[in-house]
Amino acid sequence: MHESEYRPPDLSLIGAAHIQRYLETDGADGHEWNGVPILLLTTTGRKTGEPRTSALIYGRHGPDYLVVASTGGAPRHPAWYLNLQAHPEAEIKVKAEHSRVIARTAVGDERRRLWDIATGYWPNYNVYQGRTSRLLPVVVLSPV
Question: What is the pLDDT of residue 28?
């Protein structure tokens, strides 16, 4: 996918408003966004130790959840990813279900395989990768 093929997402439900609606409705409003599923990831702030929640596109690979630290191809990793590097234990909410997870970044051949899965459900990741020199991390969230 080239930048000219990029389809901008509908941003009418993003950020704190997205998280709030998702929580209020157990995902009935907010689990699907632009045709893809969304989970809520709660990490521990690496500087504050406080819980931080992000709404993220996800896919599945067996029992694991896959998320990509893309931030639309920004030059820096998103805060939630940096938090997971410091504290890999986290919580996800998928619709009404809460689960504890442990996060790890896929590398090598595994990353290439999981990248193909991720771009299958959100092709814009290829465009985002083209916008930055950093390798966009594919994060595996495994239930504990």
Answer: 96
